[in-house]
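Hi there, hope your week has been kind to you so far. It would help a lot if you went through both lines with me. No rush at all, and the record is pasted right below:

***
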Amino acid sequence: MTVIDAKTKVCGLIGYPVGHSVSPIIHNTLAEMYGRNLVYVPLPVEPGKLQRAIEGAEAFGFAGMNVTVPYKSEVIPYLKDIDPLAERIGAVNTLVPVAGGYKGYNTDMPGLYRAMCSDGVQIAQEEVILLGAGGVARAIAFLLLEKGAKHIFILNRSKERAEVLADEINRAAGQMAKESELTGREGFFATAYALEEYGLLDDSKRYLAIQATNVGMFPHTGQAVIEEEAFYRLVKTGYDVIFNPTRTRFMELAKQAGANTCHGLKMLLYQGLIAWELWNDMQVCEEAAGKIYRKMEKALGV
């Protein structure tokens, strides 16, 4: 167990609220495993106090911060620097100390990719249904573009918002094609639909479907963004970014239709591991990752 003294490094999670977070399990377990004199604590920041919180963390010399809702985009103006991936996505969830402040990174999307690889879920050349068009969906759409998905069908309650995201992804795809002949993204494109328009999809195909809304998250666990059985017959793999509960209504419906299903707990794990690696300049081994994952499952009653 870490003995807290004058040399203890402090890291934490900024958000509101943060009392439900299992991120302390990740980082405090890593500190114990690797013998680092470091503690990680939840730090609730009330609305209107974010700038003061960032300035205070820098003044106290905090060794690293995570950022969660509702501040992943709002924090950007208060940073000294930002990683290109985080800038492109427009969201930051990890702060690394630099001279005079913090540099912002996005470890959510690399974390999701490592989680999907761990679960055996392929992105390259896949046709993907993306449910949602908010901040999380936007980041996932960029990940799908970067990792070579063949086509994204963005389904959202507001079709107009889905169209905005689809246009943004299509522009980014075109820019990637211009910048490098090696990207091969000339044929990539995204299409926007309203949720109820899922019947326009080719029902002879089976898709990777990623649920990127907060519908079904605890405590509203009985809800799914689409309830109709016909939709789930289109799904070969259903990936829900929600981790609490670990079996969502979306997953239940996909499973009943014969699809493989995954939840977001591994994404949470790997985004945390990547943040730790940035703060401590080291690689976390998969054996350690597995042990922490089991502790997270136990904490959630899985």
Remarks:
- Residues 159-179 form the longest helix (21 residues).
- Residues 124 and 148 are 4 Å apart (CA to CA).
- The mean pLDDT is 94.
